[in-house]
Every structure is written in C-alpha cells, then in structure tokens.
Recover the amino acids of this structure.
C-alpha cells in the first residue's frame, strides 16, 4: 500500500436506481510525487456523507460534479509526510478535501483546517471538529444566534449535523426540540443528545400540534436540515424575530422545485429571517469554532458517535449505508494509522 | 366643523364582497377635550392605504382589528392645537395614528413623527416622509443593504412604497428592475421613477425570461411587496448573498396559506437572506430616514404623486379606489388647513 495510490473513482453517475456500488471502481495508481511548493498527504480517514450524492450527480450544485473516472471527492483527515512549504511541516495533521485515495498532493488550498492530536480521538476531526461540527456550530451561532432561554428546533435532530446543533443550543441555555424519524432516534435525542423534547415526524400525525405541545411558546431559532413537512410545521409556530438557518434540504428534491406552503406572511408578521448557510463562507471562523467544540467535548458536554469502516475498499458500501440512513453516527473509513 | 368631531366609524366588517361603502358610517360626536398631560390634535390630512383592509378584517394581524362602531384606524397629519405636554407644543405638526376624524386626543404615544413645514408640501408627510416612504427607505437600506452597482428588483414598482424604494435604490447607484401591472405603469416606472427596466407581470408571459432579459446578472436585492408569481420569478434569479425584504404579501391571500414553489434550495445555494420588515420596529430611525428623504426630494431626485380627495366624507370611497388599484399616487383626504 505504501508505494501505490489506491483510489475509488467515479465509474458512472447515479441513474434511476440512485447511487449504487456500480457507480464506483477501485483503481491502483502510482504514488504521486509532490512538486515545488507542494505537500504529500497520507490519508488516514475518509469521510462518507450525504453531500457526496450531490457531488456525483450531473445537475448544478455548489461545485462542478466529480468527472467520470475522477477520484471520488471527499473530506479526509491526513498527515503530511513530505512538505516543501514551511507553513505545513511534515507530520502535521490536516483536514480537507483530499478524496477517496491513499495519497494526495496538495498546494495547501484544499486544506480546510490544521488538526491537533491533543483535541481528542482523531475521528473527531472528521465530525465534531470537521465540516459537520463546524456547520452545526457556525450556522447555529452565526445565523441562529440563540439566546439563553430561547427555543431552538432542529430537523434531522439525531443526524451528524443536527445532533451537534442540538447539543450546542442546549449548552447555550436554550430549550431544544428535535425532529427525527424513528422511535429509536427519539430516544437517542432525549438520552444522548439532551433534547428537551423530540418528535418522530413519521408517526406524530399532526406535526403542528406535536410542536405546539413540545414548544408551547413557539420557536425562536430553527436549524433546518430538511425543508418539507417538518419545516412547514415550524413555520406556523415562529416567535417574533425568529431566525431560520437553512443548512440542508434533505426532504425535498432539487428538480423540479416542489410546491409547498408560501411562508411569506409568517416571515413578515413575525419579522423572521431565513438565511442559507454554507460552511465555507465562514472559513475564517473554523479554528475558533473547533477550539470551542473541542473544549466542550473534553468536558463531556457534547456526545458524538462515529461509525467507522475499515479499508478504502469499504468506502462505497459505507456511503450507501449513509444514504439509506443506516449508519449509526458519523460515517468514515479508516485507511491508515498516524505516524 | 370646529365644534364637532366628525368621524368615519366601522359599520360592518368586510363580507363576501370585500370592503364596500357599507362598511363605514359617518358619525358626528362632540369635540373632545384633552385631559392632564394630553394633547388635542386637529387632523389636516387622513391617509387611505391597502393595510386598512387588514385592520378591519376579523383575522389575526399585527394589531387588534378596529372594533365595530370604532373610529376607522388611519395614519394622519395633524396639528397640535392644545397641549399639556411641553415636549409637544401647540402649533406642532405631527404624524401618527389619529384615525379618520376631525379631532384626536393623544397622550403622545400614537405620534410617530414630528413634521417640519420646511420639508416641503404637507402632503409629503403622509407619503414620502410618512410610513410609506419610511418603509421604502428603511426596508431597502436596513434589510436590502444595496451596494452601488448591484441589481435591485421591486414588486408593485409603481406603488406608493415600491416607487420610493426603486428611486432610493437608483440614488444609491443600483440598477433597478420594477414589476408592475399595466403598460401605463411600466411607462411611469421608466419615465417618472427612473427604473432601468420595468416588466408588466400581467402580459410578460414567462416572468423568469423577462427578468433574465432585464437583469442578466441576476438580482442582489429584492424588495418584495407581493409574494406570488413575481417573487417566484425573482427567486430563480438570485445572486450569491442576495437579500430579500418581505414588506408585503399583496398578491396572496392570508387564509388559507396558499401553495407555491419551495424556495429553500435557492436560498441555500445562494446563501440568500429573507427577512420580514415592519416599519414600527425601526421607529428610532424614522427621523434620520425622513431627513434624508426630504433632502433628496428637495434636490428633485425623488418624485412623488399624491391623489388628494377633499372632505372627510370622501374617505371611504377614496379607500375603495386604493383597494381597486385606481388611485394615481398616494391616496389621502384633506380635511382642514394648517394654522
């Protein structure tokens, strides 16, 4: 393994059956050599996450889709093993967009964060201290701006992002209400992530009534990962000056644009604010956010779950489990040990 | 007239025919006497505006509906004729919620702004320097925050609020695109209010295509008075970081909540912000805003139209013209001269 670069590449785009194992192929390339000013990164952990479905679809998105035959785009935790850049000395742990492969050559621009072994288990860097945790923390604090005593509602409350958002809101002194999709996840929300109330949106029936019971005074902050019926219920229960962070739209298709209730009057009457959040717009805050999250984790105030598969060849199947909602915690694949 | 208080009161709530003349009744009451600490205001101009439909409807709104038999709620320009409050000396011109009546007794809390004869014709205080102009200016500058060179779209672009918003955006160096509802208003948008482009939403057919032609680079700021099809088109053409001020929902019913396209992905992908605006939340900025608007008006950079009816008994019919869109400029009724 040390002398070759195993890569999972995109074999075909998702068709009518969605993402399948046939979309991917393992290839073995030569271990790359860094050029002047470049770094050679050995990947230790590869991330599997819902956004990857969008990255291999043909439609427009934040970024160009992964080309056919190209290495599957992915966040990863790696270790710099060769460096021609004094800002990134060999041995550094780094988190960034390094792809599903053993080795990655970087000019530094695809590194999103310098990691620190002292922050805790390495897995944390792909979750709580990685894009999911940073997204949870920054969208909540920068867009939601919750104040102690306010009520914060979270959709996909037991998910990777939602579970961190809910816990941070609780740490900040808020009442938290989570929406999730099974009785088991409701229990997890209450027992593990500290939500004050959790609603199984699949069985609750009248979601507005369920939310009214869970948050009688209404919702000040809504951390929205889904759009769809959960959002429709929340938008009927806004308090004045409510802040809604749109972080994901998991419950609705991208094309064609689906129909739903027009929220305009709810936004107007409550002088609410709805804002779309993309973590990379807030890169300057990543280090401060990760530092705070690491402290809370060390203090035992934030709980995380990691669903770790072993070996690069396991990555496609592990991603499929994520897309089916079968993962138990943040999904990642371990492919090497740090030196 | 000097010794009695003529009042237009609410005779019945709008029924299936909407607001009609039968909703109102003229009554003659005694001229009121102010008590300790109170002011007696003689109304000079009464306002007629779309919001009044909401104030007499039974449904929930920002405020309690006008009670049956109660004086019709209205903005007005008045002059203080007796005062037991040194903050508001007799002779002061004041703008506030004084109702459709000759005389109003106030404790000062329903006064929204002190007016100044030097600012221009008195009518300005019910329009450019009143709630419509303040709403236009503050929602645009505080929520829309347009920068020179950006594109600002306005719905009901020739209306009382929209026409000021469009002109302010132009003064601030923006490219302005107005949506309006007739060929005549399109001409007015272009010739009188200085829009760079104007679209007749009733005849344009494909609104997205029309907007794309008018604003090829997309929309940075959307001043939304309507919701509905115009908004649906704008939301497909947002630029990154777009700001949408929801100021009105004229094109959609309040109940039941109508269906429309879900904007979530457009908001997310463009990291847009949608915010509901109610002018009274910004009362602390009223004087500064009015001062700026008065300067621009004196410089000839903002054009206004006033549709002035004469005599308090004309108020209900004048309001009906507003609700049918038949008014030509900001509608108001003159009932007395300033001393």
């Amino acid at each position: 393994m040390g002398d070759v670069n195993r890569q999972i590449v995109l074999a075909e785009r998702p068709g009518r059956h969605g993402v399948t194992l046939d979309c991917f192929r393992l290839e073995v390339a030569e271990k790359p050599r860094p050029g002047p000013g470049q770094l050679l990164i050995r990947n230790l952990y590869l991330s599997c996450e819902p956004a990857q479905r969008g990255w291999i679809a043909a439609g427009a998105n934040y970024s160009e889709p992964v080309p056919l035959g190209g290495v599957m785009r992915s966040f990863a935790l790696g270790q710099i093993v060769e460096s021609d850049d004094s800002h990134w000395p060999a041995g550094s742990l780094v988190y960034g967009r390094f792809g599903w492969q053993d080795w990655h050559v970087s000019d530094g621009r695809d590194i999103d964060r310098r990691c620190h072994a002292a922050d805790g288990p390495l897995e944390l860097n792909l979750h709580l201290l990685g894009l999911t945790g940073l997204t949870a923390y920054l969208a909540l604090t920068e867009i939601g701006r919750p104040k102690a005593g306010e009520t914060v509602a979270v959709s996909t409350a037991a998910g990777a992002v939602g579970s961190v958002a809910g816990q941070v809101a609780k740490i900040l002194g808020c009442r938290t209400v989570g929406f999730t999709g099974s009785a088991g996840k409701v229990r997890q929300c209450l027992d593990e992530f500290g939500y004050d109330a959790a609603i199984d949106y699949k069985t609750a029936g009248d979601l507005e009534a369920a939310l009214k019971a869970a948050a009688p005074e209404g919702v000040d902050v809504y951390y929205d990962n889904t759009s769809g019926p959960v959002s429709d219920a929340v938008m009927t229960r806004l308090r004045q000056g409510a802040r809604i962070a749109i972080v994901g739209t998991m419950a609705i298709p991208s094309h064609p644009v689906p129909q739903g209730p027009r929220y305009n009057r709810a936004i107007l009457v409550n002088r609410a604010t709805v804002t779309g959040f993309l973590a990379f717009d807030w890169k300057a805050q990543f280090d401060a956010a990760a530092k705070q999250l690491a402290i809370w984790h060390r203090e035992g105030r934030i709980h995380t779950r990691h669903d770790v598969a072993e070996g690069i060849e396991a990555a496609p199947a592990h991603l499929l489990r994520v897309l089916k909602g079968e993962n138990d915690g943040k999904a990642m694949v371990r492919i090497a040990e740090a030196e």
The domain at 4-127+304-334 of chain B is CATH 3.90.180.10 (Quinone Oxidoreductase; Chain A, domain 1).
